[in-house]
Please model this.
Amino acid sequence: MRSSRLSRIVLLLSLLLLVVPRSNGIVTAGHEDMPPHGIVCTENPTATFTLTTQEGTISLPDGNRVYMWGFSEGGDPFQHPGPTLCVTEGDTVTIVLNNTLSHDVSIIFPGQEGVLADGVPSEPVFDVGGNLTSFAPVAAANGGAVTYSFVAAKPGTYLYESGTEPGIQVNMGLFGALVVRPAAHPNWAYNEIVASGAVTYTTEFAPDEEFVLIFSEIDPVLHMAVEQGLPYDMNNFTPRYWNINGRSFPDTIAPNGAEWLPEQPYGSLIHINPYDVDTHPYPALIRILSVGSESFPHHPHGNHSRIIARDGSVLIDTDQSDLSYERFTVNLGPGQTVDEMFAWTDVENWHPIDNPIPVVIPQLQNLTFGTFYSGSPYLGQTDLLPVGHQALNSCGEYYHIAHNHALQQITAWGVVLSGHITFTRIDPPLPNNCQ
Amino acid sequence: MSKEYLTREISRRQLLKLGVGLVGVTAVSAVVPKALLKPYKVVEASPDVQPARQTAGAGTYRHYAATDGWVYLPGQNLPYHPDNLAPDGLTTYIFGFRNVTSIEDDHDKVFQQKMKAQLTSPMFWLDEWRDTASQGETDFTLRLTNLGLQMRPDLIDAHTLHFHGFRNAIPIFDGEPHSSVGVPISRDLTYFYRARDPGTYMFHCHFEETEHVHMGMVGGVFVRPKQNYLGFGGDPTSAARLGGNTAPGAPMGYAYNDGDGSTAYDREFAFVVSEVWTLAHWCDSHVQLPEWSDYNPDIYMMNGRAYPDTIAPNGGAIDSATGDLIPPAGRPELQYQPISSLVTCNSGDRVLLRFINLGYVEQSFRLTGIKMRVVGHDATLLRGRGPAGNDQNYFTDTVHVGAGQSVDAIFVAPEVDTMTRLLLFSRNFSHLSNPGIAGHGGPMTEVHIYPTSQPLGPQNEPNEWGL
Model:
């Protein structure tokens, strides 16, 4: 089983290494223009978006394709998950929902206040018998439309998701991320400045190291029932797949817009540079969201993460003192969002000549070697690997896994080492010859 | 779900495809000579992998062996539990680690520990790095030897040791086999740790982790703060006993470099929390694969035991003649589950509880009767950043700890006239039973508070009773 997985990783990484160098430009969704890694913003000067519901299928690492629903911008073809909408604090956000599905659909915006639907407050909908039919006014099945609007008052990381039959529809894929940036500080996650004595801290992050990870799960029986128009009892909900940004490892580390994943445009590789006080002083910002039904304990190897905000609220006390905290595992509850800052520092500065690691690494025949290993323990160095080894390391960069520690969820219906896994890639300090 | 196999082994899935199920395996077990299931002559590790034995200071070097084995867990869930292949008195097939440091000079004796893994793994602890030579050597090395899996000669799994939570780790010492290296059967690798951040961590094998972690390759790690040696506030007399302070009132240690003594403790207990899905363990001994998305554990444990075994005595001593574990007194079936969870203390003692969750579900541990003060999460002191970091610790009776998380909590033992019991248990009551039998079970233990007139002996290691 492992061999087939590795073959797949080889394919993905081989293609990954061919893509164009990283670009910092934020672009609207359109696969050809996407930066290979990091957030892919869909944005609009007027903060007006048209989300059209589409049906389609996605690819999973065991070879299955699963029938899905999704939101797409304008007339774009089906994609999963929905586009990451980026707006600026204070924007009046307008979202026109056009529904092509044979079921009513609505959108709720948890964390936003004063949401309007067609100009009136968006409120739960009840039928004439007083039964709740939707959490928000719907775009009727087969061509209906509704326009939601709200003022994005507070910076932060938010979900948008279906409010109609949400147990079914969110699992079907009707969700996405909404990022609200501070008006005065686009490279800060939040406006607030934390005070600790004479020292202050902001939420400034490295602008090319901003990432969105949406954790989801799929019960394929639910999807089959919806596709075939059959009833489904949510009490039987049994997830079999666990996805990050709509992909399951190893697809998670393929680049944004990978042409072999046309319906799943968003990668999850956390591609960063090491901390350096002069050349790289700011951490990565990782915006984590869950649309799952239970807690997902996300554990990035390599270092702790500093949790700076939960559910779009920055962790600061009323006296400006610090309420942020560091964790090696972030236990993300259903529907929660967490913003974390992540940096990795070459603390020991190991060097093959000047500062060698104090233990002897066995000879090649006495170890197994990972696909991402450079052959050398040292950052920026490569060394011999066994003949025939499938090496995907380009320049002595480090890789660290980042995964859900409910380890039954790093599988994909019988395939192990899949599901909620991505990797952090740490490049040697600039300048480097990395691809 | 068709898959291609470029096999390096006969995969378990292939065996299934061939229709070799339980019946076949049972038949194989019956007809294959026992000798074939014994470890074949292992290849000597090549000379270049033998690390220099650490000489500076005790406790800076450990040698662990990774293998399989059998343990005892209560209850019944047929046909999976007890496992019909288990040796007499034992029930459950595991993977695990053993501490073979004391016998490592006898290579044969080390390899005789194949099929003698323990649950949960031996904990280890190391001092935070101190940068002046006069304060002693703190670099820590851990040599891992892979003994192979005796019950599963078809599996040629490597093993690794992942120090979960180690800050600014480099891949070679992280133990995640895709970003670094793994240790094949009969080979070894020495991991190096210069620990700069005190707290409660954990370790586990990261090779085919869903299986290997569930099978039991889990343990606790602590990094002890340099405040134990240096004291706080520039006052060396506030150093701890672990740092060599023999003054009568000195605490045993500090959980963190708190700068004010607020994490001082007099006794120390650690609980590695995990689960057994008896079907999955049965699958491993019977050359089957579980469907992990059906995950449904039926035995929940503290330190690899279910109540009331959690309060049985500590074992863990090594028989120097055989290298094997000596069972806890009166409990031969717990030979390979040596770690007691019974908390013993005197009135007035500050008792540090280190909760480490290496199961796959979140847990809430409740202490009846008195409050705990939570001082750390995930090897991090609960304090804000910077020179005026605000105190974020809190009191609770129920500690929530997610999968892959750790929590440090301290309680102060109340005044008692006679030995008094408190209960410490998973508040998820559905976990507090052992399969198929009445009464209380699962992740529960007791806190025994003795009056000061019955002083307990000091702890040399975490979880020691001192009775």
Observations:
- Confidence is low (pLDDT under 50) at residues 1-58 of chain B.
- The helical segments of chain B are 12-17, 22-31, 34-37, 107-111, 209-214, 227-230, 278-285.
- Chain B is about 10% helix and 25% strand.
- The longest strand of chain B covers residues 61-71.
